[in-house]
């Protein structure tokens, strides 16, 4: 499957999952520090709904802080939209060509998959990301990329116990591949999901 089709499938499947959440789950905290599930869902579709001039205007209003800008927009849109709209924005834009500023389609897939896991892991939902999508992202794990998201992988070997994948050298950190992916993206996972000397990772958004 090509990357565009993987992204479209991920968005449609996740929109279906969002449609099945309860009102309580929508208001529950995610793995993104300070964001509820509905805030993450709103952020996931931000790139489809704002033009480049609009993004630049909000960036200026946020005094040049990307984090401040995305936080404000996510909270605003999450408050203004119904849960049906939040899910629909993903489904209706399954083949939208948006990509993050760097990384192209791989980064777009990572944005969808990782933020999806921010929701499902926090809620305790057992959603397994299809292996073909997961491997694309695992193959892209680097020390530099992990540092960007606040994770220091120095001296660690990430070792998946559910598929043939490892990264780095040093003290083993073992667990499901998608949990290791989250760790490499700076997420602080619920206790017990990874085995080994787990360093503190940033609670990224």
Automatic annotation (TrEMBL):
Transmembrane segments: none
Source species, domain of life: Bacteria
GO molecular function: metal ion binding
Residues of the Mycothiol-dependent maleylpyruvate isomerase metal-binding domain: 8-94
One Pfam family here: MDMPI_N
Coiled coil: none
Entry-linked InterPro entries: DinB/YfiT-like, Maleyloyr_isom, MDMPI_metal-binding
The protein's name in its UniProt record: Mycothiol-dependent maleylpyruvate isomerase metal-binding domain-containing protein
Organism of provenance: Streptosporangium nondiastaticum
